[in-house]
Amino acid sequence: MRGLVELYVQQFKTSLASMLQYRAALVIWLIGHVLDPLIYLVVWSAVSRSRGGSVGAYGTAEFAAYFIVLMLVNHATYTWIMYEYEYRVRHGTLSFALLRPVHPIHSDIADNISSKVVTLPLILAAAAVLALVFRPVFHPVPWAVAAFAPALLLAFVLRFLMEWMLALAAFWTTRVSAINQAYFIAMLFLSGQMAPLALLPRPLQLIADALPFRWTTSFPVELLLGRVDFPLALAGIGVQIAWLLLFLVLLRLVWRAGVRVYSAVGA
Amino acid sequence: MRYLRLLWTFFRVGAMGELAYRANFFVQLLESLLELGTAIAGLAVIFTYTENLGGWKPDEVLALLGVFFLVGGAIRFMIQPSMEQLIESVRDGTLDFTFAKPESAQVLVSMQRVDIWKLIDVGLGIGVLAVALGRLGAHVSTAQALTFAATLLAGGVIAYSFWMILATSAFWFVRVENILMIFQSMYEAGRWPVSIYPGWLRVALTFIVPVAFAVTVPAEALAGKLTWRTLIGAWAFAAGLFILAHLFWRAGTRRYSGASA
After folding, report:
1. With contact defined as beta carbons under 8 Å apart, do A166 and A82 qualify?
2. For A154-177, what is each residue's pLDDT tens digit?
3. Reported pTM
4. CA-CA distance, B57 to B79, in Å (whole number)?
5. Closest CB from B30, B38, B189 relative to A188
6. Residues of B in contact with A45 (CB under 8 A)
């Protein structure tokens, strides 16, 4: 355990240093991540205006609150590991990671967290600007705000495991872009990226409940906005834990099978 | 005429290179269809709640989506690959060879690489456009068709000049791939009518990253929403930006010293 802590401390140091080297890339990343929720916020605001101010349980100010919180939750849970793995496998750089005495997932976790620490002030500034422009309204519920913290943490771990496992598809095929695209489409609709799930057709909502996607983003968002009642919040955290355990087991199996197929090309 | 022949040659070279990997056609087709399907599903969700998005009817927004695919496909077909190649060759010095050729170097770098599979997006865009126009029942008059062609051409010139300016900044900053990525994410905003965006963003999408001219204005022409002022403005802007891009290219090439030579 102490070894692991020391490992993370070192890994944080090196990844922070390398993140700060690529500041321009971080800003570009930021533009992309602000633009997506901003576009959908603008679209839904226009829809709500055309209906005299509200769509279902969402008024224009509630849409603003939803998409700004969504942006922040996405920032916390986002990974870019799928692009990374394709490169690692194709170029054989994974071989070096395999030689190390610890599981490669640890350095990825440290990388992910340190890049987010570096970009946190930027995304908070972006959220503040959006809040000034779009005037969101929040109806906070104390217990829900408290429950948000564990829900967000679980969402982060869950999304990380899910996307790390998806990234391992690179072991079997070099055409991962189509797989990634299918995943992003599922995320777009089923995790509340394009619209609050309550506004989707009923069948899609049921599918979203049954699959892991919404538990990685829209659930913590709705929790913080006070749109989830107490029993549902408890059930939600339970579902998050269940998915998390399932992904842990699956990840072990897929990783072992994947490393066996991997034959370092070009290393 | 000579340029058209050059273009045809580059197209043939690109096609020959890619036809060796025919499976890529199906991968690209699948990805394009998925993207189109996603966009249409998104529209379907939004239009269950309203019939009017910033003054645009559902089928008009569908037509806009068609133009978005058409123009985006055209950009990714030739402008983007060529500009990426230009940035690359400024960095590694292979631009030397382009200057050695007996043809305008700006013309050569602008069409030096084509990605033929992106024509799929162009085709899908035209298809969506046709369906949308059919549903609108719009009897597209000759005048409307002509203004559509004119604004589309202006939009193409604007998109080309804008990319050219971004790519020529490689002469000064060398590593500029990231700037291109900004344009790609901003282009996504063009799939919606620019009239829904708040004023400051609309200005940015019109003049800073000219998505509005490339997508919204041609779609306006088809939907019969175009005013003379916009048409003239689009052409004036296209002409101005084209000249600016040429000036950037001239200043950049004068600075270029050939890293490999």
Report:
1. yes
2. 999 999 999 999 999 888 887 788
3. 0.88
4. 31
5. B38
6. 196
Cβ contacts of residue A220 below 8 Å, gap of 6+? A73, A148, A151, A152, A155
Name the packing angle between helices A23-50 and A2-21 (round to 10°): 80
Which of B50, B178, B196 has the CB atom closest to A25's CB atom? B178
B186 and A35 within 8 Å at the Cβ level: the answer is yes
Taking only the tens place, the pLDDT of each residue in A59-79 is: 999 999 999 999 999 999 998
Residues of chain A positioned with their CB less than 8 A from the CB of B48: 201
Q: How many residues does chain A have?
A: 267
Residue type, B191: R
Asked if A106 and A4 touch (Cβ cutoff 8 Å), the reply is: yes
Distance of CA B137 to the CA centre of its chain: 27
Is B182 close to A182, i.e. CB distance below 8 A?
A: no
Question: Which residues of chain A have a CB within 8 Å of the CB of B189?
Answer: 35, 39
Give me the pLDDT at residue A215, please. Answer: 95
- For B47, the 3-state DSSP assignment is coil
Instruction: For chains A and B, count residue pairs whose Cβ atoms are closer than 8 Å.
Output: 73
Cβ <8 Å between A42 and B201: yes
pLDDT value at residue A267: 44
Of A31, A43, A177, which has the smallest distance from its Cβ to B185's Cβ?
A31
Q: Do A28 and B53 touch (CB under 8 A)?
A: no
DSSP A79-148: --HHHHHHHHHHHTTHHHHHHSSS-THHHHHHHHHHHHHHHHHHHHHHHHHHHHHH-------HHHHHHH
Contact yes or no for B41 and A24 at CB 8 A: no
What gap in Å lies between CA B2 and CA A265, rounded to an integer? 44
Within B93-198, where are the H helices?
A: 95-99, 105-110, 119-136, 142-168, 170-173, 177-187
Structure-model confidence comparison of residues A220 and A25, the more confident one: A220
Which helix (H) or strand (E) segment holds residue A65: the answer is helix A60-77
Compute the average pLDDT of residues A200-213.
Answer: 93
Nearest to B27 among A45, A47, A175 (CB): A175
Per-residue model confidence (pLDDT) at position A265:
55
Q: What confidence tens digit (pLDDT) does each residue in B108-137 have? A: 888 888 888 889 999 999 999 999 988 887
Whole-angstrom distance, CA of residue A144 vs CA of residue A229: 8
Query: What is the DSSP annotation of A145-199?
Result: HHHHHHHHHHHHHHHHHHHHHHHGGGGT-S-HHHHHHHHHHHHHHHTTSSS-GGG
pLDDT at A165: 92
Q: How far is B84 from chain A (nearest CA, A)?
A: 17
N- to C-terminal Cα separation, chain A: 32
Cβ B213 vs Cβ B231: under 8 Å: no
pLDDT digits (tens, 9 = 90+) for B231-247: 999 999 999 999 999 99
A185: chain B residues, CB-CB within 8 Å: 34, 38
